[in-house]
Structure formats: C-alpha cells, structure tokens
Amino acid sequence: MKKPRIAEQVAERLEVMIVEGNMQAGDRFPAERKLAEQLEVSRPSLREAIQMLSSKGMLCSKPGGGTFVKNTTAMDLSNPMLALFRENPEYRFDVLEIRHALEGNAAFYAALRATEEDKARIKKCFDTMISLHGSEDPMDEARADAAFHLSIVEASHNLVLLHIMQGLFALVQNSISHNLDKLYTIHRVFDPLSDQHETLMQAILDGEPEKARLAVQEHLTFVEESLKKIDEEEARKVRSMRRLTSFGR
Predict the structure, then answer these.
(1) Per-residue pLDDT for 137 more than 80?
(2) pLDDT tens, 43-80?
(3) What pLDDT score was predicted for residue 170?
(4) Could you point out which of 50, 82, 159, 231 has its C-alpha 20 to 30 Å from the C-alpha of 113?
(5) Which of 172, 180, 182 lies closest to 85 in space, CA to CA?
(6) Long-range interactions of 199-205: CB distance < 8 A, separation 24+
(7) Distance CA 28, CA 226 (A)
C-alpha cells in the first residue's frame, strides 16, 4: 500500500484547519515558521503542501504577505441546503444515513492507514472532546465531536472522502435546525457516547478495520435513536403546553 507523502498529509491537515476553524476566503494563515511548528513539520514540507492547495485553488500566497484562504470547501450560510435544514429538521436523519456509509469506510481505512501522527491527533481530539463535557455552551462539545470524527476521516487518507465529510459537518454545524447540542445536556446520553467514541478510537489505534467500521455503525445508530427520542419528548411537551393553555381559556 502506497504511504502518503509528508506533504500530502500536511495538505490534508491544512484543509481540516480551514473547515474546523471556520476560515473564510481572505483569512490569513499563521506565519510559515509558526505554522510549521504548530503542525510539527519541516518548512519545506509545509511549503510543498501549500503549493498543492494553491494549485487546487484553495490557497494563495502573496510575496512577503503570507498565505491566505482563496476558496474553502466549507458550506457557508448562503448554501441552499441550509434552507432545507431550517424548514425541515428531518433532514438531519438524511445526513446520518449518509454518514453510516461514509464514516464506516473512513474508519475502516483509518484503521489500515493511520500513521503514528494520525493516531496521536485522534487521541488528542478525543481527550479534548471529553474535557469539554459540561461546558457552558453545549455546542463546544458538539464541535469537538465533529473534530474527532474528522480526524478519523483525515486518517483514512482519502481526499475525496475528506472533502465530502467536511461539507457534511459544515452543513450540520451551520444549521439552526439541528439539535446535536441537546445530546450533550442529557446525562443518560453522555456515558454511552463516550464509550462508543473510545471503542471507535481504540479500534483504529489497534489497527482493526472491521471493528472500527462496526463501532461507527453502532455509534451513529445510537445518535439517531437519541435524537428521535429528543424530538418525541419535545413534541410531548408542546402538546402538554397546548392542553394547559386550552384549559385556561
């Protein structure tokens, strides 16, 4: 199996930085020296990665001015898909169906291809996600959840898959109709989610592709069932409030 070159891996990480950092066209990356230190790579490898993304039209470099985002794969607020999400929250479950197929394959290949650097990054994302539990803003934990899953997709070293998943996560996170944040405010949900994430991570760290694929499937099924329960509970509350209101007339 062909091992990805360092520059290719760095290019993938820069793409993830663009999406996870919600960077927009015109945003500037840190100075080359600082960025190389942050990514723990050599400056020649970083320059090669930047050139790769520049050739794809994603980045541009200005002599003496630094490196800037020219075009981002993240979906912005003008994306017509966002209107669909706002009008019909059920589209969340369409995304989950797609994630079953895509993330199952991503986890499978991550378990086969992850480098030691990839594994360290996955572990770091997992630790960050756990540390944010109980944050004042539940979306902090939801965003960390997305970063954890994207780190696994990144470790699959499939750029097409990475682009698709970046778009899906950007779509979900930018949509006001989703209620992933509510998952992290329910105590009965946190422990199973944490266990599922840890099982998934361990399968990848241990190089067990089928176990990793199965872990993703079980995790996403749990998420889907939990979201549906949340919807049902909220619908019951609305019906109860309407009955109380009608009685008070």
Answers:
(1) no
(2) 888 988 888 888 777 888 877 778 888 865 443 444 55
(3) 66
(4) 50
(5) 172
(6) 200/107, 200/152, 201/122, 201/123, 201/126, 201/148, 203/107, 203/111, 204/107, 204/110, 204/111, 204/114, 204/119, 204/122, 204/152, 204/155, 205/114, 205/119, 205/122, 205/123
(7) 39
DSSP for 113-155, please give it.
H--HHHHHHHHHHHHHHHHTTT-SSHHHHHHHHHHHHHHHHHH
The tokens describing 7, both together, are 């520059």
Task: Classify 67 as helix, strand or coil.
Answer: strand
Bridge partners for 61 per DSSP? 67
Q: How far apart are the first and last CA of the chain?
A: 72
List domains and CATH numbers for the chain. 6-69 (1.10.10.10), 80-243 (1.20.120.530)
Query: Does pLDDT of 108 surpass 60?
Result: yes
Determine the Cα–Cα distance for residues 232 and 25; give it in Å rounded to an integer: 40
Mean pLDDT of the chain: 79
Q: Which residues contact 247 (CB under 8 A, 6 or more apart)?
A: none
CB 167 within 8 A of CB 73: yes
**For residue 70, what are the contacts with CB-CB under 8 A and spacing of at least 6?**
25, 54, 57, 58, 59, 60
Better-scored residue on pLDDT, 56 or 227 = 227
Beta bridge partners of 66: 62
Q: Which of 125, 116, 175 is nearest to 146 (CA)?
A: 125
